[in-house]
Specification:
Layout lengths: L1 E7 L5 E7 L3 H10 L3 E7 L18 H16 L4 H11 L3 H15 L4 H6 L7 H13 L2 H58 L5 H34 L3 H13 L3 H22 L4 H11 L3 H15 L4 H6 L6 H13 L2 H56 L1
Antiparallel strand pairs: 1-2, 1-3
């Protein structure tokens, strides 16, 4: 959110300007860190028309953060100061919203704020995982290594997430094309052919009657079906925003045959990778479990990690706490138990993350290899069956003459 402010600096000069912040209190705190005395601060008026910023414009993609983290790591290794790094990157990034965020971070740094605290003011851009990793780097004095860790982790996460997403695009496109072609034929082509068949007065086969009935239904009620689907989609989308709805949908996602196994391996890889990255960076175990739960992006596994956190607080080992949940494979808990006994849990989790990432990659390749021919066959059979149902009676009619 953008705020206009009027303030007085240390030299007694009046200053006017704008600041981007999630809320007014945060904006005031950021300005005070710059040694400014605030005399007035008000939300900036939203622009109208085409100049107004839409919600999707205030978005930072995973790819943007991957590139940004790699650049920050490189500049830290080159001994460039934090303030100068964020000033340079704010001027270089293409994403306008991210440029505003980096400018705000650099202003906070100039006011004496730590990097992690400055980044935490922008949760849309930097997750709690990211902020806590930076905080751990500040505490240990290894900021450059921390940003290298973050860049590597986000690179792996972006690669596997993109592969899963891209694998699902093709079948969705084929299925959408299939239904689009079928609806066009039922509403535009079949009615004209069915009129010829009905006028001929010949006996119409049962399967042809079914096709004609479907065609009549879509011609008369298709618009209502269309709006019902839109309403259903909006309802499901809104339901997915509620805790119970998200839990139900995330559970359904994990129960779908084959896809459920793929998603399960994907989330296990994310848990192992998050957890290992934080442990190797020196973040306490309880905090690492809590943050991993907040960024796993699945309510089922989030609930599991919440229970694990409470059990570990009560004195249980991590492997035993995880082993109490059927969502966690026994092989994973057995390997983690070895890591706990040898004091190498972070490295063991890194190995597990690599294993599950390979499993996800192989599963995606297999899925794509199966779906491509299967979808093409289904598309051909569906359209062919539809055409045969109406063309065969016409052929019989022509043969009668």
């Amino acid at each position: 959110m953008l705020f206009n402010y009027h303030a007085i600096d240390q030299d007694g000069h009046e200053r006017d300007g704008t600041i981007e912040a999630p809320g007014q209190d945060i904006a005031v705190a950021a300005l005070q860190r710059r040694s400014l005395i605030i005399s007035a601060i008000t939300p900036a008026e939203q622009k109208s028309g085409l100049s107004m910023e839409l919600p999707f414009m205030n978005r930072v993609s995973n790819k943007d953060i991957v590139i940004l983290s790699r650049q920050i790591a490189t500049l830290f290794e080159a001994q460039v100061s934090a303030l100068r790094i964020f000033r340079l990157l704010a001027a270089e990034v293409d994403n306008k919203y991210l440029a505003k965020v980096l400018s705000g971070v650099s202003d906070d740094l100039q006011g004496g704020s730590p990097i992690s605290k400055a980044l935490s003011q922008y949760p849309k851009a930097f997750s709690s995982f990211y902020v806590n990793m930076v905080h751990a780097g500040e505490e240990s004095g290894k900021l450059s290594e921390t940003f290298v860790y973050l860049a590597d982790y986000l690179d792996r996460s972006y690669e596997i997430t993109s592969k899963v997403s891209n694998a699902l695009i093709y079948p969705i496109f084929i299925v959408s094309t299939f239904f689009g072609v079928m609806i066009l034929m039922l509403t535009l082509v079949i009615p004209k052919i069915s009129a010829i068949l009905l006028e001929s007065g010949q006996e119409i086969p049962f399967y042809t009657k079914i096709v004609i009935g479907l065609s009549d239904f879509f011609v008369q009620y298709g618009i209502f079906v269309f709006f019902a689907l839109i309403a259903g989609g909006v309802y499901v989308w809104q339901l997915g925003k509620t805790p119970k709805g998200k839990l139900a949908m995330d559970g359904l996602k994990l129960s779908v045959p084959y896809l459920g196994s793929l998603y399960s391996k994907f989330y296990l890889a994310r848990i192992a990778d998050n957890f290992s990255t934080m442990l190797l960076s020196g973040i306490p175990v309880i905090e690492a479990i809590e943050i991993t739960g907040s960024v796993v992006d699945n309510s089922v596994y989030q609930a599991v990690l919440e229970d694990v956190k409470n059990d570990v607080k009560g004195g249980a080992s991590i492997s035993n706490a995880l082993g109490a949940h059927p969502e966690i494979p026994s092989i994973m808990t057995a390997i983690m138990r070895v890591g706990e006994e040898t004091g190498e849990l972070g490295k063991i989790l890194t190995t597990l993350a690599k294993f599950y990432n390979r499993e996800v990659s192989n599963a995606v390749d297999t899925l794509v290899g199966l779906i491509e021919p299967l979808m093409l066959v289904l598309l051909g059979v569906g359209v062919g069956t539809l055409l045969a149902a109406v063309l065969m009676p016409i052929y019989n009619l022509a043969s009668a003459f």
